[in-house]
Design a protein that fits this description.
Length: 156
């Protein structure tokens, strides 16, 4: 019986020690870093020219070359890389001796920082061999600026 009583007292003492130890406090602390905001950047190109866009050239004659330019501006928040292509349409750009758009070779994979701009040069030439069939013909050229972010996007 003494053993049972001793064991009971030991269990009660052990339980009291655990309860007492559990109620003793340790120094602790917690901090928060709240309100973090993440915003995706933008790729936004704008086109402008001096004096104005679009360009309207009249009275081209065989052998004439028009040298023009326009600006490309990065209006976005990310650095971008752009290239320029031209699509010509209309009778002036058709037939056996059509007008030709050129000069865009240096305007490929140009890198622009946010807010920066660059000039894009181009030519439109009516070959000297263009015959009478081209008199009064009209054509249009649409330039397309294709831009892509440079971050995490190396050149292929």
């Amino acid at each position: 019986m003494k053993t049972k009583m001793f064991m009971s007292m030991l269990v009660i003492a052990l339980a009291a020690a655990l309860v007492g130890g559990a109620t003793m406090a340790l120094f602790t602390d917690t901090a928060a870093n709240a309100g973090n905001t993440f915003t995706a950047g933008t790729v936004d190109v704008e086109v402008g020219a001096v004096p104005a866009v679009p360009v309207a050239i009249t009275n081209m004659a065989p052998g004439d070359t028009y040298n023009g330019s326009f600006t490309v501006r990065n209006a976005g928040t990310l650095e971008l890389r752009y290239s320029v292509s031209a699509a010509a349409a209309g009778a002036l750009f058709g037939g056996p001796t059509p007008a030709v758009v050129g000069g865009l070779g240096d305007d490929q994979n140009v890198v622009l920082a946010p807010g920066a701009s660059a000039a894009v040069s181009f030519t439109v030439a009516l070959p000297i061999g263009a015959g009478n069939d081209y008199q009064g013909d009209v054509g249009t050229v649409d330039f397309t600026i294709s831009a892509v972010q440079t971050a995490n996007n190396p050149l292929p």
